[in-house]
Amino acid sequence: MSDSPEATDKVCPQCGQSLPASAFHRNKRRPDGLAFYCKTCAAARSAASRRKRGIAAQRTPAVPVVDGLKCCPDCQQIKPLADFPRTTNASGRHSYCKPCHNARGRESKQRLYGGSREYHLRRRYGVGQKEFDELLTEQGGVFAVCGTPDPEHLDHDHRTGWVRGILCFNCNGGLGQFRDSPERLARAITYLRGTTWQRVLIHPGVYQMCSPTRGRPPSPRS
C-alpha cells in the first residue's frame, strides 16, 4: 500500500470513523499532510465555534462563482480574487475578503487581548499595557532620553529582544540610525563638540565665527 495521503485511511478523533484521505482537508503543517478532523466534523466544530462567538452561520452563495471570483462568507459578496488576502493554503487566498478579514482580526484582538494596543505590545515585546505603565512610572512619566512628557514608543535591544525603556519617536529612531552602538554615539558627541562654530571676540564689539578644530569662519552664504 502506498504511503501517500490519497491511499491511506485515517481515523477522525471526533466521529471515530476510519475514512479515506479525501474526507480530510489538506494541511501541509501536519506529518500526514491532512487535517486533524474530517471535513464533516471540522465543519460542525467551526459552526459551533461561530455560534458560541455570536457570528452568523456561513451561507452558500445563491449563484455559482466563476473562475477568478470568490464569495466571502461574511459579507456574502462575490469579489475578484485580488480582493482577498494572500495565504499559503491550497487556494492561495484567505476565505474572507480584505475588509471582513480585517474586521475579524480586530474582533479577535479585542476578544483575546482587550484591543490592538495590548496585542501589539504582547506580540512584539512580550509585555502588556500594565508593564508599560509601570516602566513609565519608573521613568517619571517622561522620555528616558530627552525628558519630554507623554512618551509612547517602547524601545528594545534588537539583539536580545529585551525592553530598555520608553522613548519619543525621534529618540527611538535616532538610536536605530546609530545601530544601538555606544561607540558611534560617542564619536557623534565628539564630532559635535569639535565642530561647533563659536563666536570669538577679535575687537571690541566685533566677533568672528570660527571652529575649535578648523580655526576658520564658515563660507559666506550666497
Automatic annotation (TrEMBL):
Top-level taxon of origin: Bacteria
Pfam families according to UniProt: Endonuclease_7
Protein name as catalogued: Recombinase
Organism: Micromonospora musae
Lineage: Bacteria, Bacillati, Actinomycetota, Actinomycetes, Micromonosporales
